[in-house]
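Structure (tokenized):
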């Protein structure tokens, strides 16, 4: 028996560090007084998201008490998810949600992000006291296990779960965690045996969900589907069961059935983005336009406004939109108008700074749409307008914007911006799931990567010859433009080669000017272009004289 579990967890109330997050100072003060009555005195209060982040960054709390409804357009579940993503709280930290709103949406949303408890206002003082102590005791028990998981020691975490259950007996939270870890490790036999044993203590809905998962892993998918349908009837607010069932039906290509289940989950928790995105995907798979845009509206009006998660979610929705457009034989313009309506819903929810980012992303989306409808020049102008704010500071661009811009940049041969994005991605934070998948798709195209490397080499060679061998440089630029007819650097190079040559007419120069004017160019290309424009102006002045 390890030392972690040889003694019952004791608590000194003065040692419990609690953070109360409530936008009503009077409510936070009331809770603090209740905690003080049971000698919990190390208590901080945050009245907004900024102060909550700062406090969590400076202090490792044992327990957080969060009001569900906080600032406009921000609820407690979104704030908790953002704090967890930044690793500002420990994985074993206890969480209690409180709210005077008792609607299923609030309760289910709160509990679906792994909170320990939900209490309704007005608070019952006795119940709050008991719940706080009980949750802190549970935190002490699970702390060694979660520490092992944080250190990627899954086998050790499994052993700690076993020891705790052996020493302490039935503990539903630890039993579920142990089953999840065994399933993750693909130890089907142990998971099956323990599930049978644990189910003798209680027929809890969370254990039934694990039974369904295990059946699916053992290729008993139909039995798993039946199990999940029964579970939803028994516990209609258990939204994780809807998720599991919708995913299984989707994998079985039963898209219409999956769509019905996924939509029910979205209605229960409209603030959870991955559920509206699943509905959008299933709607696209079944060519259900009304449901697709309904899911889009739900997503847009519930986007998480902290950080850049919102743009990743919106980018994923837009990618599904492109799939939907490709399936239509007509009316793509109507679809585009509907997408713009969704963007307007999102704009009303976002902050001023985020609205500017949405405008950038919209330019890139419209660029992709213009390119798909054979309007390459319009596409390039839109693309560069979407990236212009980040010239010279690409690391400040959200990864979703950079990733969505890359395919078009590659097609147009914009190697300067490709290089900037590559450097930003290599030196930046971990990619979100959407960006990771999109980048993996690009990275898997070895032919495409080889062509870009060749293009970079050709551009470097041509520029090095501009002064001492302009004819050779011109030939290289011409070769590049056959493969990349919209490559800005190649057009600038060609103009540079042509200007001193009287045998070439203005038409050759004008062709290149037409393809690069009226669009923001990144440095140093913008400076090069300005220099050429002045040179052309001077040449015309000399001719007129």
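Design, position by position:
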């Amino acid at each position: 028996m390890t030392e972690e579990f040889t003694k019952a967890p004791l608590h000194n109330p003065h040692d419990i560090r609690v953070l109360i997050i409530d936008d009503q100072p009077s409510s936070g003060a009331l809770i603090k007084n209740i905690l003080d009555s049971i000698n919990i005195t190390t208590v901080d209060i945050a009245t907004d998201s900024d102060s909550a982040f700062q406090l969590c960054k400076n202090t490792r709390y044992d327990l957080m008490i969060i009001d569900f409804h906080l600032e406009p357009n921000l609820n407690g579940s979104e704030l908790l998810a953002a704090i967890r993503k930044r690793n500002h709280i420990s994985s074993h930290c206890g969480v209690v949600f409180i709210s005077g709103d008792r609607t299923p949406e609030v309760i289910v949303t709160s509990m679906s992000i792994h909170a320990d408890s939900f209490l309704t206002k007005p608070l019952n003082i006795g119940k709050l006291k008991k719940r706080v102590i009980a949750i802190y005791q549970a935190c002490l028990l699970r702390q060694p296990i979660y520490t092992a998981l944080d250190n990627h020691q899954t086998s050790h975490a499994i052993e700690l779960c076993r020891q705790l259950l052996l020493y302490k007996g039935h503990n539903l939270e630890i039993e579920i965690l142990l089953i999840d870890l065994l399933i993750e490790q693909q130890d089907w036999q142990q998971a099956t045996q323990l599930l049978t044993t644990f189910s003798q203590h209680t027929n809890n809905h969370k254990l039934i969900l694990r039974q369904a998962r295990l059946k699916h892993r053992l290729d008993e998918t139909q039995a798993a589907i039946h199990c999940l349908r029964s579970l939803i009837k028994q516990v209609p607010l258990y939204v994780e069961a809807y998720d599991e069932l919708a995913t299984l039906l989707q994998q079985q290509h039963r898209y219409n059935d999956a769509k019905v289940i996924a939509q029910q989950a979205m209605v229960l928790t409209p603030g959870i983005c991955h559920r509206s995105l699943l509905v959008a995907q299933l709607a696209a798979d079944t060519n259900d336009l009304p449901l697709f845009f309904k899911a889009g509206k739900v997503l847009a009006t519930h986007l998480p406004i902290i950080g850049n998660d919102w743009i990743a979610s919106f980018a994923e929705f837009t990618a599904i939109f492109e799939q939907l457009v490709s399936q239509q034989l007509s009316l793509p313009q109507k679809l585009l108008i509907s997408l713009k309506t969704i963007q307007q819903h999102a704009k009303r929810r976002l902050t001023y700074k985020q609205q500017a980012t949405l405008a950038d992303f919209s330019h890139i989306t419209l660029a992709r749409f213009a390119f798909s409808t054979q309007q390459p020049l319009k596409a390039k102008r839109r693309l560069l307008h979407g990236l212009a704010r980040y010239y010279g500071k690409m690391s400040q661009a959200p990864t979703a914007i950079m990733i969505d811009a890359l395919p078009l940049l590659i097609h147009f041969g914009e190697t300067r911006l490709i290089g900037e994005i590559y450097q930003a991605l290599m030196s930046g934070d971990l990619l979100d799931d959407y960006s990771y998948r999109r980048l993996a798709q690009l990275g898997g195209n070895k032919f495409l990567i080889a062509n870009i490397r060749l293009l970079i080499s050709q551009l470097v060679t041509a520029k090095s010859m501009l002064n001492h061998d302009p004819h050779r440089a011109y030939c290289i630029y011409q070769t590049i433009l056959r493969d990349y007819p919209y490559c800005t650097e190649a057009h600038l190079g060609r103009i540079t080669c042509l200007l001193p040559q009287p045998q070439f007419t203005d038409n050759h120069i004008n062709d290149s000017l037409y393809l690069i004017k009226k669009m923001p160019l990144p440095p140093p290309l913008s400076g090069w272009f300005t220099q050429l424009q002045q040179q052309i102006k001077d040449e015309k002045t000399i001719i007129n004289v």
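Reviewer-requested clarification: The beta strands are 17-21, 42-46, 63-67, 94-99, 117-120. The longest helix spans residues 125-150.
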